[in-house]
Sequence to fold (126 residues):
Amino acid sequence: MPEGEPPFEASVRTRLNTFKYKGDVVPVLYDPADHGKVVVDYEADAEATMQRLAAAPPLTTGEANAFAEDASAFAERAAEFHEQAAGFRASADMLSAIAQAKASGNLAEVERLKAELRRRLAGGTP
Fold:
């Protein structure tokens, strides 16, 4: 909404350095002669964000502790997920190897790989 002019709409595809939600204000620079030429004013956006953060009240000790506990629990869940994903990748690789062995007609290799897959799955690893 330019000063002294009517508001106008423009579309800009870009990445922002700060989080935005629908309805948030994003500072822009534009060509007064051509409102289709618009760019995000990253410096003004970062400055406004820093001012907003500086004005925010500091966390209480309880809030900080709760945040730290939440972060720790999230890190634990992320590590578990990472391990599960690695197991799934290994199983997918093994299934792919079984399919390749079947396609080549190598039945001994198929049986060896199936036994290895069963052993892994029995051990609790996907």
User: Anything to note?
Assistant: The chain is about 60% helix and 10% strand. Strands lie at 28-31, 34-40. The chain has two domains: 1-56, 60-122.
